[in-house]
Amino acid sequence: MERMVEPGSGDSPEEPHGDAMPALAGMEIELKLAADPEVLRKLAKAPIVADSLAGGRLVTRTLHSVYYDTPDHRLLQRGVNLRVRKVGRRFVQTVKTATANGILERGEWETPVPSLDPVLAAVTQPEPRSLLADLAGEPLVAVFATRIKRQKTKLAETDTGAVVEIALDQGDVETLGKRQPVNEVELELVAGAPSAIYRLAQRLIADFPLRTEWRSKSARGYALARGRPPTASKADRPCLSQEDSVGDGLRAILMHCFKHWTDNEAVVLDGSDIEGVHQMRVALRRLRSALGLFRDVIPPADLAWLQEESRWLAGSLGPARDWDVFCTTVLGPVAGFAAGDAALHALTPLAEEKRREGYRTAAAAIGDPRYTRFALRFAEWVEDAGWRHAPPDGAAAQPAWLDRPMADLAATILRDRHRKALKAGRKFTELSPQARHRLRIQLKKLRYAADFFRDLYKSKRVRGYMTALSRLQDALGQLNDVSVARGLLVDLAHAPGEPDAQVARAFAAGEVLGWHQRLAAESTEELAQDWQDFKETPPFWPTGAG
Fold first, then answer.
1. Is 385 in a helix, a strand, or coil?
2. Which of 167, 298, 378, 390 supports an S-S bond with 152, CB 3.0-4.6 Å?
3. Residue 31 contacts residue 187 (beta carbons within 8 Å)
């Protein structure tokens, strides 16, 4: 079979990662931490490694792997990776899936093969066979390869008996002459609970400048092979079922928010897709909304730090998002219409510099140790169902609440959110800008709750309700964008410069604001109709007494 890349041959024995069977059959549980090469060298000599089960001895291996897919990348589209790794004179084929039941879990199945070419018929386990079944006879091509020098050992927790393999990886992802460096710490669970990985990661970040890396090597390899920057990910749904308890639903929703947030981290750092910042902020707003929905079953101390840290991170992303919206939907249309207005176009470079400054602020937040601590602490709390370990003050009935059907609580929440939205929008056409803003916030909370819980209801009314709600929320959001733009225009108008230039910028700012205020006035009738449509759309949940 023709390959795009050749993995080369190693001069030392190799073995698949890791030595022991995974903690769950057919399951890999691991976490990656990005690091500079110098940090990895220091970590290899650190006391924590000296205390390993091997007494400080690091086993070094050279790992060469080739990743395969169909020419149209069907495996990538279904969240499956197919890899062949050379292990000494043997070859090991591995099928991996995306995150499964937990934040760190991925399906992983290994089989021996005779060469670097994949052999789908060698896969005998039922689950991976089902993932590959329709590819029989399909051509497979090598998409990219990895060349990694790995140093590894095992660390044990004396109090829990958990064992975690720590691997220090340095090398490259490569394809068609392109390379991307890999420098990371990989923690894989050998025995015990996943919380052991988080505890070890937090010990490491306390002593070394490491940050979480949520992208797999395969994700980075595909991005390199396709020649595309990271692309933003929108929220999917938690996919709740009627059998889920409140505790099940809380875990599923929080994991869903976390995945949406971390899936967009690399996009924010790359900075080329403005949807990255938008979607990461949406994920954090959804998280904060979920915390509000379940506040009665979350211990107060946990709720406090979750709200504080998510608010800090969302705030750090705010300037980048505000200037993205300003440049693309506020200033852009007016500048395009008035192509010969020099004063108007003088606003553009100033706005773009503000935008870049916003992205620097966002990147600095992600690179801050506070961010890494928050991500690890939150992930551990979710994996360990932290809400069950310290009941809220005076909440003796909390366990009973957590074991109640999720559908019962969801209907109560949705009725309450819907009622508050209708109350906030009473006498809609007479609402002040401040009152419309309060209505927009209520609609946002309602929409997030409806998104979380919609799969609990099979009603045909779901689509119609969500459409009416989304249309109204988006229309009010556009008005809010203009309100935010007012403050940004003031900033631009008063930027340092010659007095004449400031006067010109102030005049241009007035033009931009006037343009959008006129559009807002023209859309008043349409907005009122959107509100009326929403009011008349029947809810999709039971409307009886809560």
1. coil
2. 167
3. yes
